[in-house]
Structure formats: C-alpha cells, structure tokens
Queue: 3 jobs
Job 1
Amino acid sequence: MQNLAIAIHGGAGTITPDSMTPELEKAYRKDLAHALNQAYQLLEKGGSALDAVEMAVALLEDSPLFNAGRGSVFTKEGKHEMDAAIMCGKTLDAGAVAGVRSIRNPVRLSRTILEQSDHVLLSSYGAEEFARKYDIEFAPEEYFYDQHRYNQWREVRDTDTFMLDHSKERKFGTVGAVARDANGDLAAATSTGGMTNKNYNRIGDSPLIGSGTYANNKTCAISCTGHGEYFIRAVVAYDVSCLMEYKGYTLQEACDEVVLNKLVKFGGEGGLIAVDGKGELALPFNSDGMYRGYRSSGREGRVAIYKD
C-alpha cells in the first residue's frame, strides 16, 4: 500500500438537512465527489500531493456553490476579493494571495508564487501584476456574478453588517484540500471569497500560513474553515502541528484538542481537514455541519455534509 490520502472541504457552519433542498444537496455532493475523485486519481498516477491539493481546490473554485473563486461573495463595494494559500510539507515552501480580484483560480496564483517568488504572501494589485507576469488566467466580473449571492449582499450593503459567507445563518465559506502522496509528502491548500459585505480589505485566516493553512512532513497538513478571526488568534493549523511535534499527540488527538476544546472555549466555530505522514485523516468540526470528502488507499471515497 502506498498510503495515498486526500481530504477536501467546502466550508462549515449551520448546515442542516432542513436548510437544504434535495436538489441543492445533490449538487453539493456531486461537486465535492468530482473534486475528490479527480485529485485522488492524480495521486494514483504518481502525482504529487502539491499537485493534488491544487487540482482539488481549483475544481471547487470553479463551482458557484462554494465561496471561493467563481462562487465568491460580494464585498461592501460590490466586488470580489479572494484569498488563497498553498504549502508543501516536504520543503515548507508556501505561496499565498490576499484581496485579489478577477483571478479565476487564486490557488493557481498561490502555487506560482510558491514556485516563482522569493516571497510567501502577495496582496491586491501587486499580486495581480505578478499574475500577469506569469500568465495566470483572469476572468471578467460577470464570471463571478451569482444572483443568489447578489441578492443577499443587497440586503446588507447599506449597513455595517457583514455576513459569514452568503447566508443569515452561520456558514463559513472556504474550500480546501490536504493530501499525502506516494512519496510520503504532504501538502495543503485553502481558498476563500471571505465574508459578504466585508469592508476595509478584510483578510481572514485562509492565506495566513499557520492559521488557516499549514503543511509539514514531520507532522501533518491542515486546511481550516471557520470564523477567520478566531482561527488567526488561535493559530489553529500550526497549533495542531505543534501538539504532534512537541507533545506527541496523534493527528486525531491534536485536531480534537484544538477544534473541539481550545476553539470552543473562546467562541471559535468551524472545522478543519488534516492528514499525517502515515496517511491517517481527521476531519473534526464544532459546527452543525461541514461540506467534506475523503479517500485513501484501500478505502472508498466518501462525501458528507452533516454530523454523522
């Protein structure tokens, strides 16, 4: 066995059966399964963990169902500002973007920063200039337009209220992936459109290495989804890694300690996906639901939305 493993997420929060139509649930499951299986097949063909997480996240960015890429929510100005990050567990190299507009797949720009820049995090127009230099694909404003998201932004655009993702319910819109490849290397990637009606160029945890995204072959790869301010203050992704490295926790023990104990104690809601060097997976969340999927060597792939 090569211990191949991959997990993906599409956001967490107040996600319950009574808030979902059968048609919408079917659509979510279809897009999650497609991203999961395509990325896993890449691993089976010898692809790297870095390639797999980039592919999975890009496919989720292409779906209007998730608050990332094409499905990104509207800002206070009626625009789209996207954040993303990707990290290699073998080298600890990372690339990230914050507040970019018109980038079709922010995760692909993050990967290019990882490979072509001496920097880790680029933002706004500077990141977009970098994207042009390396022929990263842009998309027109209408590509990111979704009537449902527009209607919900219109409800709050004249107020100082922001919404967590695209609903009055608490939904944290982020997509992400973690993977272990045949060489035993780990990788993580995360992408988000942030909060509806967000102002002042707000940036969440997704592009921050150690908060929303982290990968280290010695411990684990992590991608988070939740109320970003809490995940930033708790340095969630790195905290899981630290518990494994310095305390000897297993992956599941470390994830449960951070998500189900430490975060809960100071009001942090959400979850994460994680994989360790053995290919073990963990997908804890302290909210009502989390769009998620996972697959590993010798096990059939599975997608889920609600608590088991």
Job 2
Amino acid sequence: MEELNGRQRAFAIKMFYKTDDSLEGAQREFHRFFKLGRHGRVPSKHAIKTWVQNFEETGSALKKKPTGRPRSVRTQQNIETVRVLVLQSPQRSVHKQAAAVRVSRESVRRILRFDLNFHPYEVQIVQQLKENAHQLRLQFGQQIMTNINEDNEFLDKLWMSDEAHFHLTGYVNKHNYRYWGDSNPKEVRERPLHASKVTVWCAVSSHGVIGPYFFENEDRITVTVTSDRYVEMLQTFVAPALNNFPQLHESWFQHDGATSHTARQSIAAVRELFGNRVISRFGDIPWPPRSPDLSVCDFFLWGYLKSRVYTTRPRTLDELKQRIEEEIRGIPAEMLQRSVGNLNNRLGECIRRQGSHLQDVIFRN
C-alpha cells in the first residue's frame, strides 16, 4: 500500500495540513476521497509522516535526495532553544514560539513534530459539576456497586438508553456527548444553521441493542421528543422489542433527566415495562445529572456510530438512517459486553474520586 503515485501522496500531504497536522485526519480524508470501502487500506501514519517530512525538506513527496547542504534553520541550537521554550510555556502558541526563536512558524512546527517528537495535546472538555453533583454521583456509584455485589448478573440485566441527533453534515449533536471515536477529526466544517438531521433513540445492554428508533411524524420529518412521543415509543416499539431478549428477567432500565423522560406519564409507562427497576431522576435509583461518563450510550454508542456511519458520507436522510441501522446491527457482541463491563470500572473510579470527573478514564491511565 505504501507504493503510491505522486497524486495520492500529494493528496495525503494536503489533507495532513488541512486537518491541522493530523495523521489520522489525513488517513480518514484519503479513505473518503479515494472511496476505498469499509476494508480499504490507507497509507500508514509512518508513510504520511515521511512524505510530509520529505516535502518540507525537499519540496517533493518522493524520497529525499541527498544534497550535502547543511540545515539552515533546524540546527541543533534552534532545536534546543525551541525545546526549552516549550517546556517553559507549553501553552504558548507556535506563532509566539516562532517569534521568540526568530524563525518561521513552519520551521517551529517541523522542529516540534520531527525533531522533538512533541504532540499538540488537546484539553479535554467535560461538564462542570455543581455543588451537589459530586455527592449525587458518589451515591449513585455506591448504590449500583451494592446492587452488583448482591446480584452478580445485575449489569447483564441493565438497559441504558438515550437520544442523539445525527446530521447529514456528519455532526452528532449530543449535549452530554463525551466520547471520541476511532480517531480525532480535528477539523472545521461549515454547516447550515438548521442542518438536516434525524433524532435517534437506542437502549444498550450486554446482550444487544434495542433500536434505532427515529422520532419523526407521518411525513417522516424529524420531530422533537415530547413525553407523549416518548410514551408512544415505549409502548409500540420498546415493549415488543423486549420479547426478543427472553433471557433477560427483571431487567433494569436507565434514562437521563430529560423532561420528556421524567414526566409523570413517561415514568408510569416505564414502570409498566420494568416495575420498580427504574434508574431515573424520579426512579428507584436516582440518576445523577451531568454524568455522561456513566452512560454506555454516551461514552460508547454515539461515538462508535459516528466513527462508522460517516466513513462514507450519507447523501440523504434515508441513507443516513439506513447506515445507522446497519452499523447498529453490526456491533459485535463482545464489544457490547466490554462496553457494559467498562461501566463497572467507571463506577469504581467515580467512588474513588468521591464523585469527581473520571480523570484516569479521560486520559486512559
């Protein structure tokens, strides 16, 4: 795969710069542009990095030709100067670092990436926890862990549910969304103010997925999730789907504190299906607010679907819905089991941190 023609190499280099020096972004755009298909191979990160380095040093993506000329900018002295400055002020912009060293920004970027092997790590954004949120998260973690200790099959009986908007532009609008997919896009895309979208609901367990369910009217136009529509979905879609999982007895059901979920009629409809086994704002186990890191849909499902659905960009809403359905059906059973099992680790970390953010999870320690 590495023996590619000049046009392909040039495209990969161009995408590297377009995606803010992202090797993963260049791979993804290469895959999309050349329509390689689901199993098509893209150039390796090492190959793209080599092409970029050759291009910056020689103006060509081909193999470097020895010139015998010494480096005029990326000297050992400049490399050491950049290293010292970055260690002193790691949040300082490349533009200011370049001004301090008195070399171009492109030269500083090359020194950082190729000579020092530094990487521009991003600050991870999480929801601000209010005063009582830590205690609510801690109590929730302790209660669920107690249930797990009393019933070692508790996690296998758990359904976690949520909704998300999938836009044709490739944007997943989830107010609590905190999962990153296979790669970090690091790109900016223009999109309409009111982009075409579908609203998707799913429930996830270690045994499978119920869904997707698309909230839309008779004309197949996406509509807002209200308590009436939520109850209708529970009665006409979820109730029959549960019959496909006869092995799950006394299942627990979780949803977040959205108004459509916690209205009286919604809670009543959930209890008709799950009795006194409801995890909700007004449920048998209170769901803590601002806790996407404890929901399988948030920390796994939506990010996974985003990384798969938009591999080939859907052109219509019907195609988008079809891609979502296909990818949900294709989720491997062992992946679901690992994701639900990961909840156990997150609960333990939540308790250890007294309800604070899961730092070891965020930074994969």
Job 3
Amino acid sequence: MSQKFDVVVVGAGPGGYVAAIRAAQLGLKTACIEKYQGKEGKTALGGTCLNVGCIPSKALLDSSYKYHEAHEGFKVHGINAGEVTIDVPAMVGRKDQIVKNLTGGVAALFKANGVTLLEGHGKLLSNKRVEVTGKDGNSEVVEAENIILASGSRPVDIPPAPVDQKVIVDSTGALDFQTVPKRLGVIGAGVIGLELGSVWARLGSEVTVLEALDKFLPAADEQVAKEAFKVLTKQGLTIRLGARVTGSEVNGDQVTVSYTDAEGEQKIEFDRLIVAVGRRPVTTDLLAADSGVDSDERGFIFVDDYCATSVPGVYAIGDVVRGAMLAHKASEEGVMVAERIAGHKAQMNYDLIPSVIYTHPEIAWVGKSEQVLKAEGVEVNVGTFPFAASGRAMAANDTTGFVKVIADAKSDRVLGVHVIGPSAAELVQQGAIGMEFGTSAEDLGMMVFSHPTLSEALHEAALAVSGHAIHVANRKKR
C-alpha cells in the first residue's frame, strides 16, 4: 500500500522546502523528496542556494572582504594591523560550517512543522503519483492530491571548457579552492562570475573575466552597469567583453584558453578556470513519458501565472519554470502555490522581484531600468544621489556608487530603484516596499529618514526626481 499525502514536493531547495513548510502550516499532510548528498554523505536540504550557491558564496565574499579591509582599508581609520595573511582552508571550513548549520536548520523546521522527508530521487508518474528511488536503488511510489515540482537548476556546461573540478571548475568547485590561484580565469561576466571572481581577486588572484556579450550587465540599468564596470576594473578584475571562448587545453596544473574577440584569435593561460555561463533547469528523469506535464526544448516546465502545469493538481516553481532564477522568487512561488492548494487566492507580483549582485560595492535593482522604460516610450524623471555626499558612507569609508530613482513623468509613480554602493540590496528593498504600495517619488521625499544613514541616499534620490535634493546640487531643468 503506497503512502498518500495531500501535497508532495519534489526538491528541497528554497522553492521546495518553503512550499513544504507552508503547506504543512496550512494543515496539509506534506512530504518533500530530496536526493542531494552533502559533503558528509548524508541528505542535505536547502538545494543549490544553501549548499553550493547563495549562502556559501556570501560567506566567502564576506571573509575575503574582511581580509581586503584589513589589508587595504584599516590604515585610513588609524588601525595598524601588521602583516595580514589569509588561511584559505580555515575560510572554506567556516563556509562549510555555516552551510551545515543552515541545512540542519531546514531539517529541524521540517520536524517542527510535521513535513515528512523522503530521501531519494523523485520522478512524476501519471495519475499524481511520484516514484522515489533511494541511493540504494530501491524505490517506492507515493500518491498525492497535489504535487509541486521544485527540482531547481544546475550550471550550464560548455564544450570548449569541460569541467573536471580540478583545473576547470564550475561555481561549486570555485567555492572549495584550498589555495589562492595566481592566475584565475572566469568565463561569464554574470552574477556568479563577478561574485566568485571578486572573492579570489581580493585574496590576490590575477582575475580575467571573458564575456561573450559585447555589453556588460545588460539586465542592469546602463548607468549602474557603466559604474560597475569602472569600479570592478579599478579593483583589479580584467573584464574582456565580446570574448567568445573556443577551446581549452589542460596541461598539468594549468589551462590554456583560446578565445576570439574584436582583435581576432587569442590565447591566455590560467592556473584555474571557473565556468559561470548560466544555469539550466534540472529535469533529467523528472517526468515520466506519460506524466502529461509539458516542457520546452531547454527543459523549462510550462506553467501559468500561478505556477500550475498542464496537469490539474501538478505545479512547478523556481528555476525549473519561466522567470528569474532567484532563490527569493522560488520561495515566494512556493508560498503562493501552497496557499492556492489550501484554497486561498494568493498571487505574486512578478514585476517587483529585486535582483542583487553581491560584489563590493553591491549592485541591486527593482522595477524597470531607464533604457527599458525609454524603449517602451514611457516619459520619466530621474533622480540620483551619490554616496560620496552621504555622511554615513563617509564615516564608513565606503563612498563608491549612487542611488537612482526613476519615476513616471506624468504620475510621479516610482517605476525603478537602482543602486550601486554600500548596502545596495537593503536600500533597493526599501524601494520595493514603497513600489508595492504604488509610491510616488514625492511620497518617498516626504518621509522622515533617520540621520545619518545610508537610507538617506534613497530619500535624496527621490527628492532629486523633482529637483528638490538638499545635499547635492540639483540638475537644472532644461
């Protein structure tokens, strides 16, 4: 007799585990299937994000920035620390401990909320049944009224640079270097490539980023992207745009990469190479031929605005469906689906999902960029405020970048908030809160912001939209 549940979730990443917890909170008998094994050979929850993505990369970013600060930034504060060295295995060990704490935390939350964990690979069969195959090869079939597919994504492989996790690594391998590579190559100038590149650059690597596109950070606002390129280059990252990798040859402990750019064919040698050219959905052996769920040629599962698939009672969320491949997007989709299964009319605002790149300075945005709005024919007013004019940023010796607020010229409604600078992610979230309530730039300008804070930069940028900024000269209206 097979086990029966109200909800079965396939995958325990930020989409799946959140969906499972919320479904259980709503009184639904819930199971979650996960096959990922952590470093200790035990099932580890949290998906890519907790194990080999968002969390471990932030741990390394923070450790490497503290090292950089001690090395480069203490003197200005009058602090003399003597010679500062980095113990890479200790840094990586701390990262592993944080991952262990968090994945263990998800397991505890499953227990607290009564979610049944099924360890193994989940495969959707017909008639709302899921086959669970354990690592010993034994399988069982469970039944559910509702099924949520949350199988996530994996790094894209490219034939010119096959990953061996020794010399040529993907984003997972780049989190486990035991020494600082002297010469580090990164294929891809996206979020992952820039974050990992900046970690090792701070620790002393000569980092070269090869990006096939001619444009840097095309998803970001052009003004922000331009500043980011300038700042990251100044920090020591060599970013080569329009550089298409054509091949690689590993020779012992180094790799020679061939690529073409505007100047023709080029070759460059590295001690390590990170391949960070994007991610693709994990749908391998997820859907039985007669499951009825449709996906496209890239493996993305077709869903509607509420994450329902072509089969009633079967949903899909997160990286395996359309939209941004972001942990917070997956989590909110998980909540929405769980609530809809429980009979609530939950929905999600896909227009206001913040994006963040955790370099230093951080780069973040929510809403639309100036170039997108102009292409759509929307007339806008723009206000910016530089952190160089922020007392709090000066006190912290962290004055790079600016806040940009874009408002509709007719209604004054805020359509985008874009930040490069200290705590960019937190400031953009303030913008997102206001935008969810339909804020105007004038509304933000009329609010009282505490002084001295970095948040005042958002306040001033909102005032600057109508030429009313106090702490920076306003642009003359033509």
